[in-house]
Amino acid sequence: MYEKVTAGVRVIVQPEYREEQSDPAQGYYVWAYHVVIRNESSRAMTLKTRYWRVTDGRGRVQEVRGAGVVGEQPRLEPGESFEYTSGTPLATPGGFMCGAYQMELDDGSMLEVEIPTFSLDIPETRRLMH
Description:
- The protein is mainly β and 130 residues long.
- It has strands at residues 2-6, 9-17, 29-39, 45-56, 61-67, 75-76, 81-90, 94-105, 110-121.
- A hairpin with a 2-residue loop joins strand 1 and strand 2 (9-17).
């Protein structure tokens, strides 16, 4: 589990390799990642955009930007949290991801909340030998 707090917003990420969706013989490896965004600040905010930087095991970088997460732009009151699961494929058996959320406060100002860098690794390297 990976965790980071920015300005009272805690982001927790738990990645998981999805063997059943992957095809190593074709260079296709899939990970799911479960995210919890918890507003531990005293201000309400709305998640407006996301930015991901995905780096595979060969150092190739893919950047992903978009509105909200999983089709939603959740509003988080103080003490509230939002959870979702998404995923990413890679062409290598490992890599890592990092990123940020843009949160809009009620006064219209924006807050950039960091997503912790997390590793995408196959739990047992012996799987690579098959």
